[in-house]
């Protein structure tokens, strides 16, 4: 079983390679995992092209939802994108928050940070910045963000509870997040669960949907809401790399599911207590 650091090294190495690929190569795989399918070129991703602020150069085809579309960003907001890649969601967030707001992208991979910075420079955006860092220990001070977004990234984080604690820390009181991610319903066959390619491809690192939502509530967030839910169908030519024909049929007949969810939650407002002990 891989250690936390081994998992992080594997993800960093995989996404460093992805940063050098074309969008078509990435979208043809499970979130860039390299498990290419000839049956479909769009297993996880959704179409961003009609959303204001979209920039094709920043779209790596790695997401599993449209979190920024649901994020309720207002003019002047400070927005943080976790796992910002080449900057796609950051630039869309910038279209919402405007010149008076600020957008910070955080990514684990230096190659992605470099790509995003080049894209921001081309667009002449001075209120969009990109910081290299670990989502489990963000390079951001507490209580700075009005909104946090993330697209198919937290499933790759080994300690998701710590990640949600960090999100809570960085959000302002009353701030909220909108996060798209991959979760499971039922247990995936072990052959898929243990495959490194599927881990970097957003599946083997996913946890149960109920556990995912429970972690958010346990962190202290309120108003936890599923904004969107979509079943992911893995084509047979991908499944056949890990399962026999009989195992594929058994998997399809089971109640097991791979689900893309977009989840909203809010950090409670600041306490109105005037002094310690004044609240009942």
Shape type = globular
Distance between the terminal alpha carbons, to the nearest Å? 48 Å
What is the tally of beta strands? 7
Class inferred from helices and paired strands: alpha/beta
Rounded average pLDDT:
83
| Relative strand content | 15-25%
Q: Which sequence of SSEs, written as H and E, runs from N to C?
A: HHEHEHEEHEHHHEHHE
Helix content: 25-40%
Describe this structure in words.
Helix 5 packs parallel to helix 8. The chain has helices spanning 4-18, 23-27, 88-97, 110-123, 160-170, 190-193, 196-200, 209-219, 236-239, 245-253; strands at 78-82, 102-107, 128-132, 145-151, 171-185, 222-232, 257-266. With 280 residues, the protein is of the alpha/beta class. The protein has 10 helices and 7 strands.
Please tag this protein with its features:
280 residues; alpha/beta; 7-stranded mixed sheet; 10 helices; 21% strand; globular; disordered C terminus
SSE order and pairing:
Elements: H1 4-18, H2 23-27, E1 78-82, H3 88-97, E2 102-107, H4 110-123, E3 128-132, E4 145-151, H5 160-170, E5 171-185, H6 190-193, H7 196-200, H8 209-219, E6 222-232, H9 236-239, H10 245-253, E7 257-266
Parallel strand pairs: 1-2, 1-4, 2-3, 4-5
Antiparallel strand pairs: 5-7, 6-7
């Amino acid at each position: 079983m891989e250690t936390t650091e081994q998992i992080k090294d594997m993800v960093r190495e995989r996404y460093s390679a992805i940063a050098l690929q074309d969008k078509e190569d990435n979208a043809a795989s499970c979130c860039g995992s390299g498990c290419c399918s000839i049956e479909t070129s769009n297993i996880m991703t959704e179409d961003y092209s009609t959303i204001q602020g979209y920039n094709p150069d920043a779209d790596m085809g790695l997401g599993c939802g449209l979190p920024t579309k649901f994020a309720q960003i207002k003019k002047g907001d400070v927005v943080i994108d976790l796992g910002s890649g080449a900057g796609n969601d950051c630039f869309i967030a910038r279209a919402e928050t405007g010149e008076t707001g600020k957008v910070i992208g955080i990514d684990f991979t230096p190659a992605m940070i470099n790509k995003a910075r080049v894209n921001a420079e081309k667009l002449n955006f001075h209120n969009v910045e990109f910081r290299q860092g670990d989502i489990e220990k963000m390079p951001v001070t507490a209580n700075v963000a009005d909104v946090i977004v993330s697209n198919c990234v937290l499933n790759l984080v080994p300690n998701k509870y710590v990640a949600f604690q960090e999100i809570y820390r960085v959000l302002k009181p009353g701030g909220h997040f909108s996060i798209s991610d991959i979760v499971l319903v039922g247990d995936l066959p072990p052959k898929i669960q243990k495959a490194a390619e599927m881990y970097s491809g957003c599946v083997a690192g996913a946890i149960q949907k109920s556990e995912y939502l429970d972690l958010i509530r346990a962190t202290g967030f309120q108003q936890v809401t599923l904004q969107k839910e979509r079943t992911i169908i893995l084509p047979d030519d991908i499944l056949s790399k890990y399962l026999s024909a009989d195992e594929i049929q058994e998997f399809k007949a089971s109640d097991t599911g791979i689900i893309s969810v977009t989840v909203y939650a809010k950090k409670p407002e600041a306490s109105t207590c005037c002094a310690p002990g004044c609240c009942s």
